Amino acid sequence: MIKGYQSVHIPVMGTGHSADTPIRVAPLGISSVISLVDDILLERLRKFYSNKFDLQYDAIPASDIDGRSKRISAYLNSVKEIVQIKFDEIKKMPFTKGNDKAKYFDLLPETCEIKKDYVKMMEMDNCDSKDELAKELTKKMESGSIDVNIMVKVDAERFGRDGESLGQEYTDAKTALKGFAESKGKANMIFSAGINQTLFTYMTKFKNFYRDASGDIKKKII
């Protein structure tokens, strides 16, 4: 479950407490988990952070029959884009004590090999060898994973304006799963709070849960 060099992984906390945690910690290499229960909250956060980071924001209307999965995908894509922006900024920083690049390495466990190389590099006098090691360490930096959670029994049926059921593919858990499956980037889905056989069967419809030609899996299940 833990990505990269970090030994820290921030779990899901309620439906909203860790909804934007990846924006703050993923650029520092720490993985965390977003709850997908409240798509309306995620839409509000997308609007807020799109304004803050000058990203394009197009509201997804409540009348859209597939709006829940689209809101979840759009939010996860925005978080991924923001994390990449912040991570790229950190990578461009010099190795100076007190800045976010130093914080990235200072937060790593002492047993981590690149942490050992970082400590060694910071103790070196200025020379070509130090510059080369600094470049190598920068190349090895990885952002934290933007993982998600579905409480599988939170799977309420949804109804149209005519009062008729929208069908099994539009229940809460399944639309959340679809939103995650169709979002960009590699990440992990953490199922919790019971068993939902129809949800697990629905998962088989999405190619991103399967290995690609190289054997890689874009979306993993925990």
Itemize the secondary structure elements and their pairings.
Elements: E1 9-10, H1 21-25, E2 31-35, H2 39-52, H3 67-92, H4 100-106, H5 113-123, H6 128-140, E3 146-151, H7 172-181, E4 187-192, H8 197-203, E5 219-221
Helix pairs in contact: 2-3, 3-7, 5-6
What would you say this structure looks like, in words?
This protein is an alpha/beta fold. It has helices at 21-25, 39-52, 67-92, 100-106, 113-123, 128-140, 172-181, 197-203, and strands spanning 9-10, 31-35, 146-151, 187-192, 219-221. Strands 1-2-3-4-5 form a five-stranded parallel beta sheet.
List keywords for this structure.
222 residues, 8 helices, 5 strands, elongated
Order of adjacent strands in the largest pleated sheet: 1-2-3-4-5
Instruction: Specify the structural class.
Output: alpha/beta
Mean pLDDT: 90
Largest sheet: 5 strands, parallel
Estimate the helix proportion, in percent: 40-55%
Measured between the Cα atoms of the first and last residue, the distance is: 7 Å
Cα Rg: 20 Å
| Number of separate strands | 5
Shape: elongated
Strand content: 5-15%
Q: Determine the number of helices (DSSP H or I, runs of at least 4 residues).
A: 8
Low-confidence spans: pLDDT under 50, at least 5 residues? Answer: none
The SSE string, one letter per element, is EHEHHHHHEHEHE
